[in-house]
Amino acid sequence: QIKKHIEDNKISEINRAILNGDYYGMCTFDQSLTRLYMSGKISLDDALAFSTTPETIKLLIKGATVDGFKL
């Protein structure tokens, strides 16, 4: 999927594909930060401070679905 999005110049779709690519071992930086927070390895402040989109982390922690992905 990633290759096709690049070939079709659909760069904005790449993040969504990665978000939903867990089966293939893909995850976004924010997904990793959220998982680290949920497992108690980092603080919420650190997760939000280093996140590319803090709002995504807040939504994932609350159990919301983000672009078709839910923790």
Structural overview:
With 71 residues, the chain is mostly helical. It is built from five helices and no strands. Helix 3 (29-38) packs antiparallel against helix 4, helix 3 packs across helix 5 (54-61) and helix 4 (44-50) packs antiparallel against helix 5. The chain is elongated, with a radius of gyration of 13 Å. The model has no long low-confidence stretch (mean pLDDT 86).
Average pLDDT level: 86
Q: How far is the N terminus from the C terminus?
A: 21 Å
What is the helix fraction of residues, given as a range?
Answer: 40-55%
Largest sheet: none
* Computed Rg: 13 Å
Structural class: mainly alpha
Uncertain regions spanning at least 5 consecutive residues: none
- Helix count? 5
Beta-sheet strand percentage? under 5%
Number of strand elements:
0
Give, in order, the helices and strands: HHHHH
Shape: elongated
